[in-house]
Specification:
By secondary structure, the chain is an alpha/beta fold. The protein contains eight helices and seven strands, in the order E-E-E-H-E-H-E-H-H-H-E-H-E-H-H. It has one domain: Alpha/Beta hydrolase fold, catalytic domain (Rossmann fold, 3-Layer(aba) Sandwich). Strand 6, helix 6 and strand 7 form a beta-alpha-beta unit.
Length: 251
């Protein structure tokens, strides 16, 4: 599909035709591939919808000053194209930042909201430690750093969460600016959808101290912290986390 400003967005659907729509929003510098191992668990109850952010996957065009607010407007256009609104929305990491703006600015589009391993951004957020930033900035050590930041030492699987390898340097930097520029603090009280906030207790990429900030600032939000989980806790511990999300969404 094309956005209102003419940018081509690649959109993917799976699951049950005619079932309620569940929009999944991926992390920074990632396409819909982020959800490869996770979306099947939702397909028996929902019509699962994803899209590639600008600069990822099949959504390629001129690189602009992208923002989480702009990505949220893209998400709103995707939802309106599918109808059957309001929809369920589950956003992780930067996808959770996008979801905050989506739910606050377009309350009629969001029935229930799940925010995982994310933050409100801006001066109120708890930022990652300086040593983590240094590790991620080192190209030679970045793959190992991502492995250790996303998963515990017990994890032995393969991951789809480490970024879209097809992105250009310019696209990746634009995503980084979008995520770093996020500040939804003033928007959070306008979220009307019942909201579940999830976080791993050992997340250093987006510290878990952000979870209570979101929970206390979004009206009626509830929180669940997964013990020992890191940034990819929703993937590593999907056997525990996915049923919890399904129960919340279908309550």
């Amino acid at each position: 599909m094309q956005t209102s400003d003419g940018f081509p967005l690649a959109v993917q659907t799976s699951g049950r035709p005619g079932a309620p729509v569940l929009l999944l929003l991926a992390g920074q510098a990632n396409s819909h591939a982020w959800w490869t191992d996770l979306r099947p668990a939702f397909e028996d109850r929902f019509r699962v919808v994803t899209f590639d952010y600008r600069g990822t996957g099949g959504s390629r065009g001129p690189v602009g000053e992208w923002s989480t607010l702009g990505f949220a407007e893209d998400a709103a256009q995707v939802l309106r194209a599918f109808g059957d609104l309001p929809a369920y929305v589950y956003g992780t990491s930067m996808g959770g930042r996008v979801a905050q703006h989506l739910a606050a600015r377009h309350p009629s589009l969001v029935r229930r909201l799940v925010l995982a391993c994310t933050s409100p951004g801006g001066p109120h957020a708890v930022e990652r430690p300086a040593d983590v930033r240094r590790r991620l900035a080192d190209p030679s050590g970045r793959p190992q750093a991502l492995r250790e930041l996303f998963y515990t030492d017990a994890w032995t699987g393969e991951s789809h969460l480490f970024g879209d390898p097809t992105m250009t340097v310019e696209e990746s930097r634009a995503h980084l600016r979008a995520s770093n520029g996020h500040d939804a603090w003033d928007a959070l009280p306008h979220i009307q959808a019942p909201t579940l906030v999830l976080h791993g207790t050992d997340d250093l990429m987006v510290p878990s101290a952000n979870a209570p900030l979101l929970t206390h600032h979004i009206p009626g939000a509830v929180q669940h912290l997964h013990e020992s989980g890191r940034h990819g806790f929703f993937d590593e511990f999907a056997a525990d986390i996915t049923p919890l999300i399904e129960d919340f969404l279908t309550a």
